[in-house]
Design brief:
By secondary structure, this protein is an alpha/beta fold. Helices cover 37% and strands 21% of the residues. The chain contains six helices and ten strands. The strands form two sheets. It has a seven-stranded mixed beta sheet with strand order 2-1-3-8-7-9-10, sandwiched between helices. A three-stranded antiparallel beta sheet has the order 4-5-6. Helix 2 links the parallel strand 1 and strand 2. Helix 2 runs parallel beside helix 4. The longest helix is centred in the N-terminal third of the chain and has 39 residues. The termini are far apart. 34% of the residues are buried. It comes from Streptomyces werraensis. This is Secreted protein. Keywords: Membrane, Transmembrane, Transmembrane helix.
């Protein structure tokens, strides 16, 4: 074997080794990224999850708003990427506890009974105005001492929460997407899909409650979303007691000299 042939053979061997090492490194990094994603969502391989569907409050018949359908599709894609399975149930048929399976609950308390139960159990510091009558406070969020009103199509709010019950390692999380309108629910699911890696680095497997603002949805749809604040502490603390009305002051009697 002359030098030229030997150099070619050595080059091919080196290229093969480099390609194999590159493939192994990419596979390792991909698997590590997948495991982190699975840990954040509580969805190991072949795990079972629950997708709770709300109803469209604007219709008398059982129906799901189209923006909520889009939200469900985005969540289904996340679940599939984790190699898990999903069971879809309606908000009035989810008669089971939480913590055994990862749950994704979509819709505010006005359209989702399951959301009402979760908020009462895990978010005592949050109140949502579900009064159907028009008014400035319709759909408003009260979180602790702060009030967040919506301006439909211009400024709207949605809560994105990851909550766990108990300290058991195997406890599965509950994800809540509680918006003032259906389009904000989709905005929250899209925000989660885009930012789950950053959220996992920041919160790990712990609970969090984020208040998001959807900006100008009438022009930009669910795409322009801003993080308003991490409201985990006030959302999980009891609402402050309303101040008692002050007692009326006794009026002084006046005496007129005759």
């Amino acid at each position: 074997m002359n030098d030229d042939v030997r150099n070619i053979v050595l080059g091919l061997v080196a290229a093969g080794i480099s390609a194999a090492l590159g493939w192994i490194a990419r596979t390792y990094l991909w698997n590590r990224k997948l495991r982190r994603k699975q840990a954040f969502f509580g969805l190991p391989d072949n795990a079972e999850s629950l997708l709770v569907v709300n109803r469209d409050p604007a219709t008398a018949e059982p129906a799901v708003h189209r923006f909520d359908v889009f939200a469900l599709l985005e969540l289904s894609a996340l679940i599939k990427d984790c190699g898990a399975h999903v069971q879809v149930v309606t908000q009035d048929a989810a008669h089971q506890g939480f913590g055994e399976r990862t749950e994704f609950c979509v819709g505010g308390p006005g359209s989702n009974r399951r959301m009402v139960a979760h908020m009462a159990a895990m978010l005592p510091g949050v109140r949502v105005n579900v009064d159907p009558e028009p008014g400035p406070d319709r759909g408003a969020f009260r979180i602790g001492a702060d009030l967040y009103r919506m301006e439909p199509g211009v400024t709207e709010y949605v809560l994105l929460a990851r909550l766990t019950a108990g300290e058991r390692r195997e406890t599965r999380p509950v994800f809540l997407f509680c918006g003032q309108r259906a389009i904000t629910n989709q905005a929250a699911t899209r925000y989660l899909a885009r930012n789950h890696e950053r959220l996992a680095r920041k919160y790990g497997s712990g609970s969090f409650v984020l208040l998001l603002k959807v900006v100008n949805s009438q022009a930009y749809g669910p795409d322009v979303v801003e993080l308003v604040a991490d409201v985990t502490k006030p959302a999980q603390s009891p609402l402050p007691a309303a101040p008692e009305p002050a007692a009326p002051k006794a009026q002084k009697k006046s005496h007129r000299a005759d």
